[in-house]
Amino acid sequence: MKIYIPYKHTTGEELRFCLRSIEKNLTGFDDVILITDKKPDWYIGETLRHLDVSTRKELNIISKLFQVKDEKFIRWCDDILQVSEIKNWYQGRLSDALQRAQGKYYEAIRNTIEHFGDVKYYDIHTPAIFTREQIQRVFRLEWGNKDFVIKTAALCEEDGEETTDLKINRPISKEAIQELVKDRMFFSTGANGFKPQMINFLTEIFPDKSRYEI
User: Is the pLDDT assigned to residue 9 strictly greater than 90?
Assistant: First the structure.
């Protein structure tokens, strides 16, 4: 299967380590393709061009994924690391996630509950295996003035495997990072956590360029 990454252009440093992690830890994938209107200068892999249609994050993501023509594919995010196998992981129910959410994301979860019920919450920071049929079904929801959480909407009928999420979104020491990610099947980074300590840690464990870098 191919890996598709809906991507909004930044310096691309999170993406750089994400791609290195994929090459180091994952086998059996065919290629990695960015879905974006602008790629990082150093990226030499394939792209699927797509302009953002809105300022709404979830709507932009589902619009990007709708461009994928593969009948089955892996959706990845540029901040997900250390994954060695792909499963459709979830953590609790939508009602659990709603208690933790704020702002627009709270509204997206609430809309998803109203449409699908209190199903398993798949929108944790992991890759996911999608079919084109699932993405088309989510794309056809009433997005006019509503957002939905995409992975849950697409995978709500799947059995999945329960796990706990780990997104490091605060500056902590390299030693603390090592302790958090030890024995983890995956972790991800946030803007507030992608600081020199995290960059140093990632440089140590993923020192080699991927095939997607100049």
Answer: no
Model confidence over 199-209: pLDDT tens digits?
Answer: 999 999 999 99
User: Residues with Cβ < 8 Å from 45, sequence gap 6 or more?
Assistant: 19, 31, 32, 33, 34, 211, 212
Residue 35 main-chain phi, psi, to 5 deg = -105, 105
Closest to 34 in 3D by CA, of 67, 75, 4, 71: 4
Q: Which of 13-17, 49-53, 56-60, 187-191 has the lowest mean pLDDT?
A: 49-53
pTM above 0.90, yes or no: yes
Helices (H) then strands (E): counts for the chain: 8, 10
Number of structural domains (the chain) is 2
pLDDT in tens, 117-164: 999 999 999 999 999 999 999 999 999 999 999 999 999 999 999 999
Is 10 inside a domain boundary?
Answer: yes
CA 203, 83, 25: angle at the middle one, nearest 5? 65
What is the bridge-based pairing of β-strands 89-90 and 3-6?
Answer: unpaired
Residue 11 has pLDDT above 80, yes or no: no
Are residues 148 and 175 both part of a single domain? Answer: no
Same domain, 201 and 135: no
Strand, helix or coil for residue 173: coil
182 in the same domain as 153: no
Domain that holds residue 172: 166-205
